[in-house]
Design brief:
286 residues; alpha+beta; OB fold (Dihydrolipoamide Acetyltransferase, E2P); 4 domains; 4 helices; 15% helix; WH-like_DNA-bd_sf; S1_domain; CvfB_fam; nucleic acid binding
Amino acid sequence: MMPGTFATLTIDEKVDYGYFLTDGNERVLLHNNEVVGEIEVGEKLEVFFVLDAEDRLYATMKKPLITEDTYAWVEVVDVVDDMGAFVNIGLSKDALVAKDHLPYLREVWPEAGDKLFCTLKVSKNGRFFVRLATEEIVEPYFKDADRAVFNKEVTGTVYRMIVAGSFILTEEGYKGFIHSSQRTVEPRLGETVTGRVIDVKEDGTVNVSLLPRKHEALSVDAERIYAYMQERGGAMPFSDKSDAEDIKERFQLSKAAFKRALGHLMKQGRVYQKEGWTYFNEQSDS
């Protein structure tokens, strides 16, 4: 009987707090909290072995989501800065993905609700830990994408990160890559994101963009400018003649993007320009 392994045992005795199981030589406790369904003395059960907080071996009828031989998506339930991320592995106790196995930058660590593709590791002293799947492990799960998915929306979960960008496994099974130039904010490890396929590679992988399409970006930029004008009472000291650096500093937009957004607002009749300033059009529903 070893932590992290399964065995089929016989129910030997019922006590107030649970059942004692035996393999004919040794006995182990199955606590009432670890029982699934109705059981009775003499019945054979498949159980999984775990250590409690005092290093005592006990049995559970609960099935772990991952074992040392299997991988699966497990949900993050808590994150502790000096320890790492705790994940739900289907047992009474959560297991830890140590911080050394998480990204160097704390801001892209997973959050509660994110999912990690992992396996279970059992230490020499019987403690459970969780390890992230390597690229070689994830590879068999990939499915080749065809050209029909170009420009289509896909949703996937970040399973690996490098300096150049993030890798996702999509709901369809595609391996996707999000280059750092195709996002405004770096997604977290384990975060589920939705983006647009901007390239389908010969090897069946896809490149994905999290940036809005041009017409969507235009609307977002225009509303950002309009909101800034609202804060200033309907006028701002910027126009399509303003300095590119000033525009970049204030709106985080290129001058070209700013001019497109401003032109969009003018075409809608919501604003007008005069002597280097932009004003709300009083006839619009500002």
